[in-house]
Amino acid sequence: MFVHVKKQLDKKPASFFMFFVLVTLLIMSTRLHATTQTRLLQLTQKMTHLKASLTQDENQQSTLHQQLIDTQKKIDAQRADRALVHQTLDSKQADIVALQQLIDKQHTMLQHFQQQLAHILRVRYKMRQSNAWGPWHKPSDSPMHTQRLMRYYQSIIRAQEKIIQNIQQTQRDLQQKKQQLDEDIKKQQERQQQAQQQEEQWLALLAKQKQLLHDLQQQIHHQHQQLSDYEKNHQHLIHLVSSLTQKSVIQTRHPFTQMRKNLPYPVDARPIHSRKFTRGILFDIPEGTPIHAIYPGKIVFSDWLNGYGFLIIIDHGWGFMSIYGHNKSLLKQIGQTVAQHEVIALSGHSGSLKKDGLYFEIRHHGKAMTPYDWFISP
């Protein structure tokens, strides 16, 4: 039976080759489809994570907005308290002015009565020295009358002394009250100063919260824009990978896997400044630096791709592709074959890159691989 099959195959070598090609294409199509699904799943996970982050930020925005309202209420309450303190201070200052006026009036009365008392004492003294009683005493007055006049002067003196004592006590009371008012005013001034300091702290906190809210709003806006870009890139990626899956039928003579640790860098700049970036590496090179193909292959994509700018993808066969992003200009078109070291683009910062450089990836059936594992030591 095997001999019969062999004879049939010997008779139809062309049919066998076509059968082999179709089987190979079917296997590659299945692998590329799986790769496409993997990349789409990764992008979907990114979008899900971003949506969760947006929800968290929006909740934080709501909390921060409520904190702003609470802080503003505290500031308003502090200002109302300061206004009350100020009003109390004005009232106590007015009380002090009124007390001082009363003290001055009592002092004037005291001086008046003291002068009257001094006058009476001088008259009494002179009367005792000369027995001259003035117009109220006549030589014919009896001793009884003289005694009554003396008692009258004594009662006047006692009354004057009583008035003076009352005035002095009133002055002491007024001075004590003024001292208490002075202490109250000092306390109110300290309270006002503390209230002002507290208000300044609340105002500083309010300004900080407003800035945080502004920054958070900017971040939310950026995340919304980024989510929109992800969704657009998601659709572009579906279309691109679907197209490349249908067109990628290359099989090179030497498998790409044999080139591990033997591939050249895509740039000739020395020293090489590069770092890991997302799923690949980012080369820090000036704008316009020539970009080289790391291995022979066929250009399967040469166009703008959102998020990557001007992008070139080379199919090296056996499921391996190299990706070169953020270029200034593309020098090769889809369908062209390129040799190793051939210049394919000039570096730039197109797309989302903030400064000049080259974003580079190696993928196998759509799965990103570590490029450093493939480059020859510089």
Describe the structure.
This protein is an alpha+beta fold and 378 residues long. The chain has 2 domains: 14-249, Helix Hairpins (Orthogonal Bundle); 252-378, Distorted Sandwich (Glucose Permease (Domain IIA)), CATH 2.70.70.10. It has helices spanning 2-11, 13-130, 143-247, and strands spanning 274-277, 280-283, 290-292, 297-305, 309-317, 320-330, 337-338, 343-347, 358-364, 367-369. Strands 1, 2, 3, 4, 5, 6, 7, 8, 9 and 10 form a 10-stranded antiparallel sheet that branches. The radius of gyration is 52 Å and the shape is rod-shaped. The model is unreliable at 1-9 (pLDDT under 50).
* Topology as a string of helices (H) and strands (E): HHHEEEEEEEEEE
Question: Oligomer, anyone?
Answer: single chain
Q: Beta fraction of the residues?
A: 15-25%
Low-confidence stretches: 1-9
What is the end-to-end distance? 57 Å
Structural class: alpha+beta
CATH architecture of the largest domain: Orthogonal Bundle
Number of helices: 3
CATH T-level fold name of the largest domain: Helix Hairpins
Shape: rod-shaped
CATH class of the largest domain: Mainly Alpha
Mean pLDDT rating: 75
Q: Could you give a short account of the major beta sheet?
A: 10 strands, antiparallel
Count the beta strands: 10
